[in-house]
């Protein structure tokens, strides 16, 4: 029975893996809970954002404790301060649970031992050796800003050949990636921050040797493009094309795309037929190019600067599996005479082709026909959990009374037809609700803890605050925040 209880607890705590607060609280319940939680926490001890690692002496102490006595003596002779921990202090062999290394956080905590650059270099080296020796296998590695060729350490071949996820940046010399490519050929998730725009053929080689690459992210993050000598993305894109049979998650943000890369990227996207997630910027594409993109397995579409027509086309060509459509609409910033009709088409495409949709961005003008189609969408998309709503009338200057009337129309549609799963609504820009309309809406929402985000500071007024606090106390409102339009529109990013 005790084994069954521990197994059951383990399954429960695994579901809380990303909830550091609950896991740390669970450590204090009893010995059984502690023994069950510690291995989960130490799989990836670097990922708990609630911890201030700069002051986390315990983490430094636990890692340093595992160093051999002769290494400790050597480090102390160099003037490095190591904690004095008796052999009875540690209840677990913590590093035996660890499956990850995060270079940035290790670099932060070693400052506890010394502020001198050379001493920190020594500590880094000994810590990396220790992880290579003590961790049974490594699944996740974050090597941004690394200074040590860890693949030359003893046991590195055995530890790194099981690597599933790698996060890195292009400041690392290309030869470093050659070293990794020799060992790490089973990476499924590869995340690259491009901070040096010069060609890095080591990255290309690392992509090439992967046997089961499923998840790829590329983020440009540099100020100048003058370093480019060749097509900066050509070789990377061509290697990704070869992974079309395994790649299902693609997140790409390029800062510099010339005509060649534009054409190449569009051609390769048409071949990545197994994508389930597509996150990118479509400002470089035209509607005819987007119409050629067919993703029958697509579940997440998250695009910056896409037109309504382009979004409608991708949705129509998806296989009915879309769960998240999170878009930054180009039409909203570039007034188009066809906006009214295009937004109607978009709404209809969503409710006809996305029966599983959970997260959705919508933009439409405040007209009767658009309100009706919005309500049809609510009725047909019963899995909806979160909505970002953008409404604007580009051609008519509306009175304050009309804006309040439009707001009431939206709230009434939500009252009549919103699915029971809906838990978050983000109102962008032109939404205003009278005190009475908002109160009527919240009265009808009892039994659900709703999160509302708005960019209008009117709701920070005393009368609105009083009403909102009342429904917070009643459990109707989980959260009600006034955010910048930028934060509202970053929905899901």
UniProtKB/TrEMBL annotation:
InterPro entries named among the record's database cross-references: LRR_dom_sf
Highest taxon, organism lineage: Eukaryota
Protein's name in the database: F-box domain-containing protein
Originating species: Rhizophagus clarus
């Amino acid at each position: 029975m005790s084994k069954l209880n521990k197994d059951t607890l383990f399954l429960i705590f695994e579901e809380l893996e990303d909830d550091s607060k609950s896991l740390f609280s669970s450590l204090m319940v009893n010995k059984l809970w502690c023994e069950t939680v510690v291995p989960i926490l130490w799989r990836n001890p670097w990922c708990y954002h609630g911890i201030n690692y700069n002051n986390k002496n315990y983490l430094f102490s636990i890692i340093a404790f595992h160093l051999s006595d002769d290494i400790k003596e050597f480090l102390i002779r160099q003037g490095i301060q190591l904690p004095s921990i008796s052999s009875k202090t540690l209840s677990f062999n913590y590093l035996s649970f660890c499956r990850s290394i995060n270079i940035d956080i290790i670099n932060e905590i070693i400052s506890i031992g010394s502020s001198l650059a050379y001493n920190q270099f020594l500590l880094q080296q000994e810590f990396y050796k220790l992880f290579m020796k003590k961790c049974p296998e490594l699944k996740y590695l974050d090597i941004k800003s690394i200074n040590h060729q860890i693949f030359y350490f003893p046991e590195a071949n055995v530890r790194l050949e099981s690597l599933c996820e790698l996060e890195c940046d292009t400041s690392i010399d290309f030869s470093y990636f050659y070293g990794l490519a020799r060992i790490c050929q089973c990476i499924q998730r590869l995340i690259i921050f491009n901070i040096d725009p010069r060609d890095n053929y080591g990255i290309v080689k690392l992509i090439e040797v992967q046997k089961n690459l499923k998840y790829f992210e590329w983020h440009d993050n540099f100020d100048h493009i003058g370093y480019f000598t060749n097509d900066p993305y050509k070789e990377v894109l061509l290697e990704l094309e070869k992974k079309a049979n395994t790649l299902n998650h693609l997140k790409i943000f390029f800062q510099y795309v010339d005509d060649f890369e534009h054409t190449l990227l569009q051609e390769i996207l048409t071949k990545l037929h197994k994508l389930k997630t597509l996150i990118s910027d479509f400002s470089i594409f035209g509607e005819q190019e987007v119409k050629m993109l067919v993703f029958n397995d697509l579940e997440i579409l998250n695009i910056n600067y896409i037109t309504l027509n382009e979004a409608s086309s991708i949705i129509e060509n998806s296989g009915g599996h879309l769960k998240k459509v999170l878009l930054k609409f180009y039409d909203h910033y570039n007034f188009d005479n066809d906006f009214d009709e295009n937004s109607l088409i978009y709404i209809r495409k969503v409710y006809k082709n996305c029966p599983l949709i959970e997260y959705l961005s919508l933009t439409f003008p405040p007209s009767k026909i658009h309100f009706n189609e919005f309500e049809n969408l609510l009725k047909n998309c019963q899995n909806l959990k979160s909505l970002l709503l953008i409404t604007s009338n580009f051609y008519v200057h509306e009175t304050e009374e009309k804006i309040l009337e439009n707001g009431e129309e939206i709230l009434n549609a939500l009252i009549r037809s919103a699915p029971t799963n809906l838990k978050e609504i983000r109102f962008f820009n032109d939404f205003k609700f009278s005190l009475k309309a908002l109160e009527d809406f919240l009265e009808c929402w009892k039994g659900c803890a709703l999160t509302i985000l708005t960019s209008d500071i009117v709701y920070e007024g005393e009368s609105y605050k009083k009403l909102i606090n009342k429904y917070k106390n009643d459990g109707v409102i989980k959260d009600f925040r006034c955010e910048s339009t930028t934060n509202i529109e970053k929905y899901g990013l």
